[in-house]
Amino acid sequence: MDTTDPDIVFDADGVCSNCHRYDEISRARLIPMDERPARLRQLVDEIKRKGKKKKYDCIIGVSGGVDSTYVAYLVKELGLRPLAVHFDNGWNSELAVSNIEKILKKLDIDLYTHVVDWEEFKDLQVSFLRASTPDAEVPTDHAINALLFKTASKFGVSYIINGQNLSTESILPVKWGYGYYDATYVKDVHKKFGKVPLKTTPLMGLAELFYYMQVKKIRLLQILNYVDYNKAQVMELLKEKLGWTYYGGKHYESIYTRFFQAYILPRKFNIDKRKAHLSSLIHSGQITRAEALEELKQDVAPADVLQQDKEYVIKKLGFTDSEFENIMKQPCKTFLDYKTQYRVLEKAKQYRKYFKFG
Q: For the whole model, what pTM was predicted?
């Protein structure tokens, strides 16, 4: 990590604030390796007990990516009965669709897909591009989280199991990505720049999140924190067991994500999100710093792929070339330039123990 994180601070020894934050989080949330098998068995027993008389005992999200695919594989290996949920925002690559179809068929998992109205979601994505913030993928990330809770509530399921984990996702500067649970932010950006009413896009404010977790007693579980999650080894396992195919980068199963992270972020915001992803892998001991620096010397994505993605995205979003270039030239902003519940969320972290995350 470096000063492209606007909030980074280095101590007298040159150790950055992200490293210190990782130490704090790992002490509070990482389960000691020797305790993980027993804790996992206890967790699985609890899920099975609460879901005993129901068709499904847990909800999982699927995108075709490595984390969500391994969650699907793992929960079946543990004897759970998941319902897979997919948010179709119109940007799935053919590879992602193929991966989802293959793994769910082989694992015999039912699928619930929410297809958002394209004109509506396009308007929301364009709104975030016009907002000029580096978290323009928030519409998808927020909608996925909202959809998982809404689906769990609909089917009476007490557990949402996702692929988030400290091994590969411990580092992410807040100004690079915000709004995953903040509908106030999403709505304010859309109010300022959007035109199409949000009728099919799942949204979830803090009050609704509180209702799901405290009244409906829905628990969000990061099950990969309960196992020894080595990404390279898992990818080989998924290829062998499920016929899963790698898509070339973190979250590149989405064409829009690939273009946003590989083209817009570096060129407009001077952000290479690989720095955060690789830093997480360094912390978890999966790669060395030297290996990470070597990887950063490589292009984020091949030039011909980026050109194809650029032409495709501009056309799909309804921009002219000049309109898109004008957006790229607008002054950079952050979520703090819009109405949010950020301070409320920060204060709520003091009461994390009262919410069933983990």
A: 0.91
